[in-house]
Amino acid sequence: GLEPDAFLVLTHAERFPTAGYVQSRTWGFPAYEAVAYPLVSGLGQTAGKIYSLGWFLLAVALFFGLARRQAPLASATLATLGFALLPVSLISGNTLLETSQGMALALVAVGAFFRWLDAPRPGTLYLLAAALGLATATRPDYVVLSAACGVALLIAARPSWRPAVVASAIYLALAALPFTLYGSQTFGLGVV
To answer: Is residue 174 within 8 Å of 68, Cβ to Cβ?
Structure first.
């Protein structure tokens, strides 16, 4: 059986070809559901779980990369093992939920954040903004991480205004796009 939230995703995904997009819960998880619904409706529940597993494996690899930058191999490996064995990690890698995708995108953002602090380049700032925008579009409460990173960057490094404006535009566009698409009442193959 599926947990209740994953069951809602499955139910809406199965009806996607005729009903179009219907948010699975509360505000919806658009950047996840935009891929998961067609996958599940076309290829079945297992395809959706494999999609989540792929994001989980990417999150584990990203975590290891971040840990390895700061610690010797043995310590980084142990920390990564602890991360991979967290119940939220294990569950997210084997369910029809957005958790793995959001986690991986947040780890991309954290890596870009630290990389930008080491060497402030506009491209790294844009990667940070894109990762945070996609994470927020995946799960809207990532706006909290986005705000924290934005404030920390302003305090720690004060980026020049042009890259900051471009990065803000990238973030807002990626975070808002799925909600804008859903707000138009049509999405994908069907009509809401």
So the answer is: no
